[in-house]
Design a protein that fits this description.
The structure is a homodimer. The first copy, chain A, has about 650 residues and is an alpha/beta fold. In chain A, strands 8-29-28-19-20-21-30 form a 7-stranded mixed β-sheet. Chain A has a 6-stranded mixed β-sheet with strand order 15-14-13-16-18-17, sandwiched between helices. In chain A, strands 2-1-7-3-5 form a 5-stranded mixed β-sheet. Among the domains of chain A are: about 100 residues, Beta-grasp domain (Ubiquitin-like (UB roll), Roll); about 180 residues, no CATH class. The radius of gyration of chain A is 28 Å and the shape is globular. In chain A, helix 10 crosses helix 14 and helix 12 packs across helix 16. Chains A and B meet through helix 5 and helix 6 of A and helix 5 and helix 6 of B.
Chain lengths: ~650, ~650
């Protein structure tokens, strides 16, 4: 996609944005505030800008008079960038103009990294796990009456130098007819051993030459959502991708309620069936979207947290939630997908990522493998943020990990107007430092319904940076704006008046909401600190941060540092891997090298139970401020605060 | 059991017999003829003998007058030997007395050999495949929260020096509760790898110390009968044994009809279910008879012919009966018994003996392994005689094998009064050389119903030896006895008059019956000859014969040589292994050494299709005489004939 440069006047700030981006988003990226509380539906009509150079698409509105339209006025929330553009933001007061320099820094999100098959090959990491070989076997006759399987195996021995071959029973069952279907011309699928001295299994035989069709399914079983990918094993390409809510949600929103349900009679069996049902639905979509023959699927790789993995495999998860929090196993042997109820050909084996502990599971291990953190020379902090935030720190030589119980605030839970990152969620925000009017950006550019995690972080960071809330998250009650008010004894800021929302109330952010966010970010930050301290390191020793999880791609990194969720670091040193668990599953399906390495990596991972680590509570309490009790940990913020105080005084 | 010596007068011949043996059997063993056509039910009253020394149990009868009883007369067919005894056979004519020396030699059957666990150990062949280890694991606590499986595996690593352990999913599923049942004191069952570099699987974990209970099931799937044994893996003892007719009989009497049924829609599935049903019935009996806990069964070993094996595994057998007679496979991987429908704990894996060809199957391979022929320095001929006779020749360095289509005569099929070796079958026989009156011995000592295989051989051998039939199996029509007669244009000998039988007809043996026997024995003998010739050897090169199959333990070896079924050889060099297939299955369950060796042995076995071997037909035609066209092959018989002719002339 082409990119365009948008320059905002009088700020003299620019952003480079994708074709079609709305002007409001471009302003946010450039660090320019435009009043906009309706989230982009053109309802409030406050986001008037003047197009001075270039042209935009849309942005006309009945709220703009014909003469204004002619002058170049547009609503920033309805105007899409189609070329390089110069935009003037009307500055309605001198005061506004004077605070132009107080604006937040331009928005910075993490660089998104995906796996590259070619890169894998170049790095010498590509050891194909499933190979197809086309064979033209001699036909039997009275002088050559070798058994069918022996005929196949001997031919592979002699003509293809293949040894230590094992032929699985499903193949033996169908081989007599298969060989004769196209006159003993067949394609054999060879599943390679993970260890060099292992055996190669012939898992499938198909009539004719089908070497061009060789696929795998990768699945990430999340507590909330299950994602699948269909992968072409010949090219590494993702043929199709699909996600579904995990059907288990009906039996419990989170891990703990699922674990409780699993203890009921028949509960474990039910949860297993339900998640398998979800996976089957996904596989069905993947296959039909890619229009492939299901029999051409050779393998399946699965990653999920410890609870999801045990439920998927129907392994009693009773002791996961009971101190001392013991999971059943770390490593699971390969399992026939059919045996689990997965609707794939019977030759397909499911490879399941190993677990480290009850709360650091296969999704994290998959992320470590998929991101190739396990080969890094640099010291990396790997963070997967959700209800439970998992933290891994280490490099190619060692790993320490821990799970922090962050609570659901970062996913919009426990926040009065919190919601998941769905349409209508305020996901980005800026505030006019003088008028205290908001600029809300919502997912789908529509009137707001609530606030999602990334929005929450940005709002709190903005409020804090401008001194609207103090470092304990309390509002400055002296500010002169109707947006800051007391309701039922609790102070709050009105993000959007009822008229501008999709709901029947004002959307607000209260001190209680902020407190919940602070607790969540405090748990994560202090978890990282504790883990590092346990291995004799500090936050300052980190070379790089890897972010994983649904969270991350939309979070403004600087804002996350401002509130003390992330350690202060050059945003270029922060890499986002998105669904790293799915990526790890895909990589495991693509190369045996990963399957070999993962066992060692899992053994290397030392797990710390934070609740059993005495220093954790001290670190946690110290982190219950914005950004932290110890401002020395956030030197850039400290220096911005100094400058701001100086500017305000001056 | 104690043995007693029985001496017969005036013959001056003795036999050593088990306590309780009836006198008629003792006479047969001693080579003494006593007229007896009712088989031992005391009906004909012809078998009167006088007890001169010692005492017998029973033998009184209303057919004996009181004064005769007092004189010591008893019916030999009703009198059991209880101590050393001297018995006089009343000689009713001078003629009888003069032919005393023409009697056949005493009966000789093959030495029966069984496996000895201690012998196995001494020979260095004992590599336990399934070991149980009792473990007292440390309990988890906040400082030690290893996952359950990791706890078990680490303990085995550190305390028992066990490495390369794999824990199977069924174990992982139940391990959380199992460990806690008796405070982390458990017994783990370790399935050892066949190859040294393989992995050890932990297939079961039980609470407490169950090391004393470790069992295996061995099964021989015969076309007609399925036999099972429950084996104590700690001691090698057979705990219980049970046999059942193969439920597949309802779908076809023999292999060919089963193969045809398997081609019908759903036929293969049906046959698989039915034989599994039979096996489940057997396992149920084995377990209840031995009163063991089913969960203590660690493994299962199965042997059967190629068709039985493919049907058991539900492997398409379509090409077994179609030229060029190609089976699906030789070697089958271990298969979860549950997956086949076998009602054993889910950790039990079925080891299935490999096949050589369509008609030399796992039962034969099992026999080769179980008899340890594969370690022999001597050149051995291994013969498994049934409807199909399988022949293997070789020693520790090589093997050649073939199947001869013998037809069912040796199992009583195609013989007018033929029957299986069941109660009422004439199984042994002698004939008075002068009166031509028979001495019938039946299974169960009751009036005859028919003739079984071993009886048939003895009858024909006796008739031939005395010149009652010639070398083409035709009766001497000049003999003066009502027992030799023509019926519907076919000559026959009356073995028992209707009154003395359990049926409503005379029991006879016709020239057609004899012809069928000659064809069967000719097929087997010429099969052996052809096979030996193909490898550059002759019958004379053989050091030893191993007999296997239901046939064998009751066959009089000298008689079998007389008719030319077996090559002439010192009977001490013939060993009988009974159900060698079951023995092989049992051995495979007892030691991994066999499982390792069997793959090499199977590869060493060169299969010859007799129908494709040009010389076979010549050998076959030459063998269609008693004992053979070439009498030089039977030197002892030739010399007996010479002496007899001389004696008759003299």
């Amino acid at each position: 996609m082409s990119k365009h440069r948008v320059k905002f006047l009088p700020h003299e700030r620019s952003a480079e944005v994708e074709d079609g981006t709305i002007l409001l988003r471009a302003a946010m990226d450039a660090g320019v505030h435009i009043n906009a509380s309706c989230g982009g539906e053109g309802v409030c009509g406050k986001c008037r800008v003047i197009i001075e150079e270039g042209a935009v698409e849309g942005g006309a509105s009945e709220r703009l008079k014909a003469e204004d339209l002619e002058k170049g006025y547009r609503l920033a929330c309805r105007a899409a960038v189609k070329e390089d553009t110069m935009v003037r933001v009307p500055v309605e007061s001198d005061i506004d103009a004077s605070v132009l320099n107080l604006q937040a820094t331009p928005r910075k999100t993490a660089h998104i990294k995906t796996v590259d098959f070619e890169e894998l090959k170049e790095a010498g990491l590509f050891i194909p796990p499933m190979e197809k070989i086309y064979l033209e076997l001699p036909e039997p006759n009275p002088q050559d009456h070798l058994p069918d399987v022996t005929r196949l195996v001997s031919f592979l021995n002699l003509q293809h130098d293949e040894h230590r071959l094992v032929v699985d029973l499903p193949v033996i069952r169908k081989i007599p007819e298969l060989l004769r279907e196209e006159n003993f011309r067949v394609t054999a699928t060879l599943a390679r051993p993970v260890r060099k001295d292992g055996q190669t299994h012939i898992i499938n035989v198909q009539p004719g030459d089908t070497t061009g069709q060789n696929y795998a399914v990768a699945v990430d079983i999340g507590t909330t959502t299950v994602y699948g990918q269909l992968i072409d094993l010949n090219t590494g390409t993702v043929m199709s991708e699909y996600g579904e809510f995990n059907g288990q949600i009906s039996y419990g929103e989170d891990v703990i309620t699922r674990l409780m349900y699993a203890e009921k009679p028949g509960g474990l069996e039910k949860l297993q069936q339900v998640v398998v049902g979800t996976i089957n639905k996904i596989i069905d979509k993947l296959v039909s979207r890619a229009s492939i023959d299901c029999d051409a699927i050779s393998s399946m790789a699965v990653a999920g947290n410890t609870t999801m993995t045990q439920l998927f495999l129907r392994v009693n998860p009773r002791y996961i939630r009971r101190s001392p929090y013991v999971p059943a196993a770390t490593i699971y042997p390969p399992i026939r997908a059919n045996d689990l109820g997965i609707e794939l050909p019977e030759h397909v084996t499911a490879l399941v990522y190993p677990q480290v502990s009850s709360y650091v599971g296969g999704d994290i291990v998959a992320g470590i493998m998929g991101s190739r953190m396990y080969q890094s020379e640099e010291l990396i902090l790997y963070l997967d943020i959700g209800t439970n935030a998992e933290v891994v720190v280490g490099n190619k030589d060692w790993f320490a990990c821990a799970a922090c119980s962050a609570g659901p605030a970062l996913e919009g839970g426990g926040i009065e107007f919190g919601m998941r990152a769905a349409k209508g969620a305020i996901e980005d925000f800026s505030i006019d430092p003088v008028t205290l009017e908001p600029m809300n950006l919502t997912i789908g550019n529509m009137r707001p319904k609530g606030i999602c995690g990334s929005g929450l972080i940005t709002i709190v960071a903005n409020l804090f940076e401008l001194g609207i809330i103090d470092n304990s998250g309390k509002y400055n009650q002296d500010l002169d704006t109707p947006r800051i008010r007391e309701r039922d004894g609790v102070w709050e800021y009105v993000l959007a008046w009822q008229d501008n929302t999709q709901i029947d109330r004002d959307i607000t952010l209260s001190e209680i909401d902020i407190e919940n966010l602070i607790r969540a970010k405090g748990a994560i930050y202090s978890g990282c600190q504790t883990l590092l301290e346990e291995v004799g390191l500090t936050i300052q020793d980190l070379d790089r941060i890897y972010l994983a999880g649904g969270f991350g791609s939309f979070v403004d990194l600087e804002k996350a540092m401002t509130i003390g969720l992330l350690p202060e670091m050059d945003p270029n040193k922060i890499t986002f891997f998105g669904n790293a668990s799915l990526m790890g599953a895909r990589m495991a399906a693509l190369t045996n090298r990963l399957r070999r390495d993962v066992v060692e990596v899992t053994k290397m991972m030392t797990n710390f139970e934070l609740s059993e680590t005495p220093s954790y509570m001290d670190h946690y309490v110290a982190a219950l401020f914005l950004p932290h009790t110890d401002l020395a940990l956030f030197p850039k913020l400290k220096s911005r605060f100094k400058n701001r105080t100086a500017a305000q005084k001056g």
